[in-house]
Amino acid sequence: MNFSYEQTTKIIFGRGKIESIGEIASEFGKNVLLVTEATNSPLAPLFEKVKSLLEKEGLCVSHYDGVVPNPTTESVDAGTKIARNKKVDVVIGIGGGSAMDTAKAVAMTAVNEGRAWDYLFFKKQPEKTLPCIAVTTTSGTGSQVTQVAVMTETATQTKSAVFNNIIYPRVAIVDPDLMVTVPRHTTASTGFDAFCHCFESYLNVNGSAYTDIIALEGIRMVAKYLRRVVKDGQDLEAREGMAWADTCGGLAIANAGVTLPHGVGMTISGHCPQIMHGESLALTYPSFMRLTRPAAVEKFAVVGRILNPELAGLSDEEASEKCCEEVDQLLKDIGMWLNFESFSVDEAMIRKIADRSHDLPDYKANPVIADIDEIYRELKDALVRG
Questions:
Q1: Measuring CA to CA, how many Å separate 174 from each of 14, 101, 131, 183?
Q2: What is the rounded distance in angstroms from the CA atom of residue 122 to the CA atom of residue 153?
Q3: How confident is the model over 284-322, as pLDDT tens digits?
Q4: d(CA 225, CA 58)
Q5: Could you give the residue ranges of the DSSP H alpha helices within the chain?
Q6: Alpha-carbon span 380 to 174, nearest angstrom
């Protein structure tokens, strides 16, 4: 049992916790930058409420509302420019993974030279960052507790991530009350992402006894609450359960990492920005599970029995096979049984995605290392899935 585990984010979890945002932010300075999606979004009242809470504590608030789905290098650059010009002390990201990832990237780049994208490949890694507070309004990305900031370089259609322990948010506010208005499909997409984070960290060759405990707890929460919350977004018990599943997923991947579907999913989103991250995972999972299962029978069996306790009497081999079917059924039940054709993605684009997917490191952490042709077959299987 040799492993290391790091988590430097203070997690403030529970209903109504957003009310403490002013007091929390004031610990880091006077000048605050809010990082959010456009102010004409359904979250606009929340943005105004947070501004009011911050100003009530005597803080000076600037607002960057240029976050876009699947953040781009340009959108991060624009936020960085404001942070530098305003000489902010703390950055607050409010929203889903795109807002929180953008906020983490802005907080890092504001006090370093160049662009955030530079720190993926080209520059010596940064040694400092502004403090970042992450306020999640969805349950799936786990970004509030990870050291990762995902973005896409538009010119090359390359989606990748800054990965550095200094960009862990200082504080994460996980308030289920902020999630009750999330649309049904977004709830399903982000909820499935939470499952994938837990499942992939559990399978990951770099996992540990510690991350296994966290990952399995998240999977139990998904099994219990995801269908419920998709059916009724006002179900606060289910919202709370999925918020905890999301947080477990983030804690697990921050230390174990993800596997093949996330590497492929990153490439899908880089080439097809109309596809949400959770959708990209839903597209690949049925084939991915059947590719990987023979190399991880015992773990698939454990997850299968969580998803369906009636599998308890079956052998590991049988339960592992049924696990694939249980995940298929989950996708169908939450409206995430998808195909590429519905997103106007053709076979030529699938070929391009497969060829680029093998450049990413996540596939190496999978129990089965897939080659380009296997990835292509996996993607092609989802072209016209009925």
A1: 6, 16, 17, 18
A2: 14
A3: 999 999 999 999 999 999 999 999 999 999 999 999 999
A4: 40
A5: 21-25, 44-56, 73-86, 97-109, 118-121, 184-203, 209-231, 236-255, 260-271, 277-292, 297-307, 316-333, 347-357, 372-380
A6: 37
Q: What is the largest CA-CA distance in the chain?
A: 63
pLDDT of res. 112: 94
- The reported pLDDT for the residue numbered 359 is 61
- Alpha-carbon span 142 to 247, nearest angstrom: 5
Hey, how many other C-beta atoms are within 10 angstroms of the C-beta on 48? 12
- Residue type (1 letter), 243: A
183 burial level (CB within 10 Å; 0-12, 13-18, 19+):
exposed
Going by the DSSP 8-state scheme, the letter that residue 234 receives in this structure is: T
Using DSSP's 3-state secondary structure scheme, residue 168 falls into coil
Per-residue pLDDT tens over the stretch 73-113: 999 999 999 999 999 999 999 999 999 999 999 999 999 99
pLDDT at 362: 63
Tokens representing residue 43 in the block: 């979250």
Any alpha helices (H) in 168-276, and if so which ranges? Answer: 184-203, 209-231, 236-255, 260-271
**88, amino acid identity:** V
CB neighbour class for 280 (10 Å; exposed up to 12, middle 13-18, buried from 19): buried
pLDDT of the residue at 51 = 97
Question: Mean pLDDT score of the chain, rounded to an integer?
Answer: 94
Cα–Cα distance for residue pair 373/255, rounded to 1 Å: 30
Residue 109: strand, helix, or coil = helix
Report the pLDDT value the prediction gives residue 1, as an integer from 0 to 100: 73
DSSP state of 340: G
HSE-CB of 382 using CA atoms within 13 angstroms: 31
Nearest to 205 by CA among 288, 305, 295, 324: 295
Query: Which pTM value belongs to this model?
Result: 0.95
Residue 247 in contact with residue 174, Cβ under 8 Å? Answer: yes
Render pLDDT for 171-225 as a digit per residue (tens, 0 to 9): 999 999 999 999 999 999 999 999 999 999 999 999 999 999 999 999 999 999 9
